[in-house]
Amino acid sequence: MSDDALRVELVAADRLVWSGEAKMVIARTTEGDVGVLPNHAPMLSLMVDGIVDIQTTDGETWIAAVDAGFLSVANNRVSVLAEHAEMSHEIDLEKARHDLDRAKEHGEMDDDAQAAVRRHEARVRAAEQAS
What we know:
Layout: E1 6-12, E2 15-29, E3 32-36, E4 43-47, E5 50-56, E6 61-66, E7 69-74, E8 77-82, E9 85-87, H1 93-104, H2 111-130
Parallel strand pairs: 1-8
Antiparallel strand pairs: 1-2, 2-3, 2-5, 4-7, 5-6, 6-9, 7-8
Helix pairs in contact: 1-2
């Protein structure tokens, strides 16, 4: 791997979701969106429910919906670790929209219900961006 590429692994608790070389990774952290380019300074951040956008060295774009987790960057290696992660092409957009509508139907929402809404919103955004 050259110094102008990142080695990226997107990992869920139960599987390796995506692995390859990229020229850029964008993820949402507790501090806001962060873009990682080759030779980025080392960092470890907490991610929030959202999407991860991976721009490969081949010019492809891969988008995934992820739950909260960790983003680690060191020596041109990027690790995205989440409890659940789903590539946009694996998401049924209509079902994701239906699940989001059902999650929003609750009047008063506790923290768990709000987290469920954020997860469903991320799935819808990922599927919409890929189409």
